[in-house]
Design goal:
It is a single chain. This protein is mainly β and about 450 residues long. Helices cover about 5% and strands about 45% of the residues. About 45% of the residues are buried.
């Protein structure tokens, strides 16, 4: 049955749901020890968001796609550092010991045109040996060991480059149950790294992308690293560093795709990306020693050397398709989930408010024009998103944010990120278990009041 046939039914429910708000849960956002950090960043300028503890996302200019009308895109970036293990979509594997906090970076299920850079603190550790950062891949439903791209020696932070945000944590390798106690990962099967030296370069930032890999010790159960990358770090005074590192990766034979982009300035966006025509084959062995919080103190690098190729305009062929930005505001609710093949689901985001406000796929702008839905996802595969945001100050009163399962496969995991007052962020995860648009089918995500 088509959606339009159900609009009247949903509209009739609106008044009843609004009446129930006064006796619903607390009118303030879910309590947390950390309200998070939020910043709207425009693609033409780039920027960063950083917590007091040192967790940070750095967004290079040009890494957000343009809008459909060709104008520069903006995205609300957020960091939450009070994530409990019980709130994660999948437990962190026992081969990793979590160091410090688990972080939620947003938006999730959003693909950038260029990798953005994540830094996480590890100040409690005397050495980065055996440390890495893991990220939860929503589409593959597993934790991925990310190659380290940077070490902030001054603040004891680790850095990675990623196309998508989500859940991240600093971890230390532990002995997995599949490996005997006499054969620890950090001994015979310890990790290594790739180094690309470009000391005469002062204009280009380089990206190393893993095109293929064959692990030397597949029995350890390393995740698939194809498509993951690292980028050149920046000097404290600005400009690219003379070496690009891909750190703490499993031993094995790698095919690396190398690309570069000319650095931007205050008055100039970064140049067009170029890719080296010949992929480079390297065999990564183990580090021989690690002395301290400096990538160059690592001994036993596998050097990346060019030969026989040239630079051609364009991204590496396997880079993902970027997401077109959606609306941002002082209030923003974004519902996201994964659709794949026959397991597609049509989830619908609803915002109810005072004076009969009800914004959803059948009424994409509130009567007063303060709220708008600009993305309605149905059954397309990939990163599914619905987004409602404020375009001007919202009227005072009670609000309710909820989700209906309109059609498709259940159970279906979902995530809703809610930003209020432009600075308070809370991500809610859950699993939708039944299809329906009756009153008791509504999954209430959050209620709040504007005074």
């Amino acid at each position: 049955m088509f959606k339009l046939f159900k609009l009247l039914v949903i509209m009739l429910l609106t008044s009843l749901l609004l009446l129930l708000q006064s006796c619903s849960e607390s009118s303030t956002p879910t309590p947390t020890n950390d309200p998070g950090k939020v910043e709207i960043i425009n693609s033409s300028t780039g920027g960063s968001v950083k917590t007091d503890k040192g967790a940070e996302v750095i967004v290079p200019a040009g890494s957000i796609a343009n809008r459909n009308d060709g104008s520069s895109g903006s995205v609300s970036f957020s960091i939450e550092s009070a994530v409990n293990q019980s709130d994660l979509p999948t437990p962190i594997p026992t081969m990793y010991k979590v160091i410090g906090s688990i972080y939620a970076f947003g938006p999730s299920n959003f693909v950038f045109t260029e990798p953005v850079h994540i830094f996480l603190p590890a100040e409690s550790e005397s050495s980065p040996e055996g440390l890495t950062i893991i990220w939860y891949n929503e589409s593959e439903k597993q934790w991925i060991l990310l190659p380290l791209s940077d070490i902030d020696a001054t603040n004891k932070r680790l850095g990675v480059s990623v196309f998508e945000l989500g859940y991240f944590a600093v971890v230390r390798f532990q002995n997995p149950s599949s490996i005997s106690k006499s054969d620890e990962i950090m001994n015979d099967k310890r990790v290594g790294g790739i180094r690309y030296s470009h000391p005469s370069n002062t204009e280009y930032y380089f990206t190393l992308t893993i095109k293929a890999v064959t692990y030397k010790y597949p029995e350890i159960g390393w995740p698939n690293l194809i498509g993951y990358n690292v980028g050149t770090g920046s000097n404290p005074t600005g400009g690219p560093r003379p070496k690009t590192h891909m750190m703490n990766i499993p031993q094995g034979t790698y095919t690396i795709e190398l690309s570069r982009v000319k650095r931007g300035t205050l008055s100039r966006l970064p140049g067009e990306r170029e890719t080296y025509s010949n992929p480079i084959l390297v065999t990564v062995g183990p580090y021989t020693s690690v002395f301290g919080w400096d990538a160059e103190s690592f001994q036993g690098w596998t050097e990346l050397n060019l030969g026989g190729g040239d630079w051609r305009k364009g991204n590496p062929a396997d880079w993902p398709q970027p997401t077109v930005p959606y609306g941002t505001g002082q209030f923003q609710a974004t519902l996201s989930w994964q659709n794949a093949g026959s397991t597609w689901t049509d989830l619908d985001l609803h915002v109810f408010g005072p004076n009969g406000i009800h914004v959803y796929f059948g009424n994409d702008v509130s009567q007063d024009g303060s709220l708008m839905l600009d993305v309605d996802w149905i059954d397309e595969p990939g990163n599914a998103v619905e987004n409602i945001f404020s375009t001007k100050p919202m009227p005072k009163g009670e609000y309710k944010i909820g989700v209906f399962v309109y059609d498709g496969f259940v159970p279906k995991p979902y995530e809703v990120r809610i930003i209020r007052q432009g600075s308070i962020v809370k991500t809610h995860r859950g699993t939708a278990t039944r299809v329906g648009d009756e009153e008791d089918d509504l999954i209430v995500i959050q209620t709040f009041r504007i005074d």
